[in-house]
Specification:
By secondary structure, this protein is mostly helical. 57% of the residues lie in helices and 9% in strands. A hairpin with a 5-residue loop joins β1 and β2.
Length: 247
């Protein structure tokens, strides 16, 4: 099932636009002890420089990731004990749309998904492209790393690039990007982190004399405007000495 679906090129190409897979696996500990081929791992270094062991059969996933799928939400969609079992789930309501018992190949699964995907698109509009979602995850890491290195300017540019990419993708698809609520929440969280760093920098500057803070305050005002933080930009302008009565 894994080979006929998740290693099926046609299905993966279709899934890039239409689906997200949640896999539930049993007996991981036993597979580890028996050194099953599905549990082979490879080292991978993330954007923070941390190295972890990921699964060869499930690139991007660790054993800890899979361990959490043997219980919880995926199990709720099981009908009986027959394995494999495929559930097509409404991502907006997390309710079962169709259950498929036994093996199914990628081509047949696509045919089963299509009418459900069409119904969801009609009701909710086009969903977020998986590549765009992956870029959002990468952007979060890049912003975190940049701020940790004191590179606020880089974090602002990275965020601006992500917002532009979201707008261009939505415009091309003929969709209002505001309808992509989960993605918008991620963008809002990124913005909040950067604006928080801006505020901290401004607090530090406020304790410096005008001559020592003017240049940096002007730069902070530019970044604040780019982040859409108008009030913060005005405050930075005051720190830069635009108001002559401000000492």
């Amino acid at each position: 099932m894994h080979r006929s679906v998740l290693q099926n090129g046609a299905y993966i190409k279709y899934a890039q636009q239409h689906t997200v897979e949640v896999i539930s696996m049993e007996e991981l500990e036993r597979a580890l002890q028996e050194k099953h081929t599905a549990i082979k791992t490879y080292p991978s270094t993330d954007g923070y420089g941390d190295t972890s062991l990921l699964l060869v059969e499930f690139p991007g996933l660790s054993l800890d990731d899979l361990d959490g799928t043997s219980n919880g939400k995926p199990i709720e969609f099981m009908d009986g004990n027959r394995i494999p079992y495929t559930a097509i789930v409404d991502p907006h309501t997390e309710t079962l749309m169709q259950g498929i018992k036994g093996k199914i190949n990628g081509r047949k699964l696509i045919e089963q998904i299509k009418p459900h995907a069409a119904a969801l698109k009609k009701k909710h509009g086009l969903g977020v492209d998986r590549k765009l979602w992956e870029r959002a995850a990468q952007t979060e890491v890049m912003i975190d790393v940049s701020l940790g290195a004191g590179e606020l300017d880089k974090a602002v540019r990275t965020f601006a690039g992500m917002k532009k990419n979201v707008k261009e993708t939505a415009d091309k698809a003929g969709v209002d990007a505001e309808r992509w609520a989960p993605l918008q929440r991620r963008l809002d969280a990124m913005r909040e982190i950067i604006v928080g760093d801006l505020k901290s920098k401004m607090e530090e500057l406020s304790r410096k004399p005008l001559g020592a803070r003017r240049k940096e305050a002007k730069q902070l005002a530019q970044w604040a405007r780019r982040m859409g933080a108008t009030a913060l930009a005005e405050e930075a302008g005051l720190l830069a000495g635009k108001n002559k009565n401000k000492k």
